[in-house]
Write a structure and sequence with these properties.
- It contains five helices and twelve strands.
- Helices cover about 20% and strands about 25% of the residues.
- Helix 4 packs across helix 5.
Length: about 230
């Protein structure tokens, strides 16, 4: 009986822990402004904003909660024809512990924000200008089933949600530029661009692994790994 109770307790703790880590932590005070000391002591400090923060009102100003420039279009003259201008805890210190961030996305005609994921956030996209073909793919569904694709054509004023962690994309199908804003449910959502991560990793993933995974000749993999993989963020 004691063993069953112990196992049940461990199971409950595991569930509670998984739920508590499912999103950014809730703030314990009005604000907790991040300290930008990433180059302290002459060397980079990983996630420095999570280690030090201001929470006393006398130590912060309105500028800690302010950022300008999202009225300026991003430079889309690149291979993808898109540019992402992110506002997150790395460049707006007041977002620390608040669990949200924002991005402006500009698309040249036929520009693409390529398939990618946000490992720590759901994305809520609002189209301001242009026409976008958007979509996301479900996670592995099981034996003898394919990953289901959800797509939609969006026009100005339309919104679309990309669930946390799922591969998604946006493609400007119009002959004019497009602009969208995205809200994300994390102060630091992260981004993994699929092609960049798979074929542009440093050091490269073994070509035998990729050839087998994609069921192509190693020469195809070697060619893809030799390309320059553009980062539009």
């Amino acid at each position: 009986m004691a063993l069953k109770s112990f196992v049940l307790t461990i199971a409950i703790l595991a569930v509670v822990t998984s739920i508590s880590h499912a999103s950014d932590p809730s703030p314990l005070q009005d604000f907790c402004v991040a300290v930008n000391d990433s180059m302290a002591a002459g060397k980079p400090q990983v996630m420095a904003f999570a280690l030090r923060a201001y929470f006393d009102p006398k130590d912060v100003t309105a500028d800690d909660f302010f950022r300008t420039g999202l009225n300026i279009p991003g430079n889309t003259s690149n291979q993808l024809g898109s540019a992402v201008t992110a506002v997150n805890v790395n460049n707006l210190a007041g977002l620390n512990t608040l669990g949200i961030s924002l991005a402006r996305i500009d698309y040249a005609p036929y520009g693409l924000n390529p398939p990618h994921t946000h490992p720590r956030a759901t994305e809520f996209l609002v189209v301001l200008e242009g026409t976008l073909y958007v979509g996301f793919v479900l996670s592995n569904p099981g034996p003898n089933m394919k990953n289901k694709l959800f797509t939609k054509i969006l026009h100005a004023g339309d919104v679309f949600v990309f669930p946390i962690g799922l591969i998604h994309f946006q493609f400007n199908v119009g002959k004019i530029k497009a602009v969208a804003f995205a809200g994300l449910s994390s102060q630091n959502p992260g981004v993994i661009t699929i092609a960049n991560a798979v074929f542009g990793s440093d050091p490269p993933i073994n070509d035998d692994v990729l050839a087998k995974a994609f069921q192509v000749d190693k020469k195809v993999v070697d060619y893809l790994q030799s390309q320059f993989w553009w980062d539009n963020n």
